[in-house]
Design goal:
Layout lengths: L3 E8 L3 H16 L4 E9 L3 H11 L3 E3 L2 H5 L6 E4 L6 H10 L3 E4 L7 H10 L5 E3 L7 H11 L6 E9 L16 H4 L3 H17 L2 E9 L10 E8 L4 E7 L8 E8 L2 E6 L5 E6 L10 E4 L20 H18 L7 H20 L3 E2 L2
Parallel strand pairs: 1-2, 1-4, 2-3, 4-5, 5-6, 7-10
Antiparallel strand pairs: 7-11, 8-9, 8-15, 9-10, 11-12, 12-13, 13-14
The structure holds nicotinamide-adenine-dinucleotide.
């Protein structure tokens, strides 16, 4: 049977526009799915930049008007990689037009907006680009938890540390303004921390938090620290900051359980530290596992064992698994409902920081 053709419109041609373009071009090389992807329309604001990017990445057409695109009957997928303030309007219009909708994180500007998006997208296949769930080491951690290799979790500690705020040459951008971004480190970095925590350690019962803005005159947070009580009884802490001098993209977690410990740092993407606490104590020590096969997540999709992968593969794998789920009529995660769960936690963190009180989520 012939593959179904999916005509794709990508809105936003910046950093994520390139990451998604690459995923569309590569996915069929690594994932066997009964679809052909056509990179049909690329949408942005600057025509010269659109022309250059369309030529580089093989987009058939360009446009500077997203509204005209989401209503086109020939378009199957609308993919949103714009500043956060535009996500809801585009996603709701695309879902109402019956499109498959992909949206970058943070999915929304607020939990209320996220709820409206999730409601609008209920009847169309959808995905939030929390791509880190498809880092093999993170997917493998999930498998270790499922196999009870961590045991009862005592502590879940996560930090997402960047240093962009400390660079005096960096000009303010949409990412540092409330009107276009909604928040600072919270939406940018903490949204990933929360999604990964919900994926690996389950729902959150309560949070206490503080937020801080270091840059004078800025109306979004530069850093946030959170104490977390998980429903499974474990204690957690989250930290997200743009002021971690010396850290380029240190998205880390450590999980300590009754049977083991797992630790990850995105700056060392192919590795997972694992300690098996069921071994004799005199033999115990963290293993530095190269999570590239055999029998590791996505190792059969990409290269032979020991042949490492990179950031771009996490987008290819997210898209590949979405398409596989679509073909099989199976649910895909993270979807807009998962995005709403993330925003519910982010809203509680903001409320906790503002009120200086613990906020219960249950
Ligand atoms: N998944 C991840 O790890 C990750 C990483 C970085 C950014 N993001 C998210 O991706 C989104 C985009 O971030 P980015 O870093 O690519 O930003 P960017 O500034 O590099 O690109 C934004 C793009 O949106 C376009 N745009 C702005 N207004 C538009 C409009 N009205 N119509 C059409 N296009 C418009 C701009 O022309 C630009 O091409 C954000 O939501 C961000 O939080 C996710």
């Amino acid at each position: 049977m012939a593959n179904r053709l999916l005509k794709t419109a990508l809105i936003g041609q910046g950093f994520m526009g390139r990451a998604h373009s690459n995923a569309y071009r590569q996915v069929r090389h690594f994932f066997e799915v009964p679809f052909d992807i056509e990179t049909t329309v690329l949408c942005g604001r600057n025509q010269a930049a659109l022309d250059a990017m369309a030529a580089t990445w093989g987009w058939h057409e360009t446009s500077t008007e997203w509204r005209a695109i989401v209503e086109r009957p020939d378009i199957d997928i609308v993919d949103i990689a714009t500043p956060n303030a535009l996500h809801a309007e585009i996603a709701i219009a695309a879902a109402e037009a019956g499109k498959i909708v992909f949206c970058e994180k943070p999915m929304a500007m607020s939990a209320g907006e996220a709820a409206r998006m999730a409601a609008a997208a209920k009847h169309v296949p959808n995905m939030v680009w929390h791509n880190y769930r498809r880092v093999p080491a993170i997917a493998y951690t999930r498998r270790l938890i499922d196999e009870d290799r961590i045991g009862r979790v005592f502590h879940y500690r996560a930090t997402y540390l960047q240093e962009s705020g400390t660079d005096p040459t960096r000009r303010p951008s949409w990412k540092t303004q409330k009107a276009s971004a909604g928040s600072g480190a919270m939406g940018d970095l903490m949204s990933h921390v929360v999604d990964t925590a919900l994926y690996l350690n389950g729902p959150i019962a309560a949070v206490a938090a503080m937020q801080h803005t270091f840059a004078e005159g800025r109306d979004v947070d530069d850093a946030a620290l959170v104490l977390v009580r998980f429903v499974n009884g474990s204690l957690g802490s989250f930290e997200a900051t743009r002021y971690a001098t010396g850290c380029r993209n240190a998205n880390r977690f450590e999980i300590h359980g009754s049977k083991g410990m797992a630790a990850f740092n995105l700056e060392n993407l192919n590795h997972l530290q694992f300690l098996d606490a069921t071994e004799p104590r005199n033999l115990q020590g963290p293993r530095n596992i190269l999570v590239t096969g055999p029998d590791h997540p996505f190792s059969s999709n990409f290269w032979k064992p020991g042949h490492v992968i990179g950031y771009e593969h996490t987008f290819i794998a997210a898209l590949g698994e979405f398409l596989r789920a679509l073909a099989e009529g199976q649910p895909f995660h993270p979807n807009f409902e998962d995005g709403l769960r993330v925003h519910t936690v982010l809203a509680a963190i903001e409320q906790a920081a503002e009120s200086k009180q613990w906020i219960e989520l249950l």
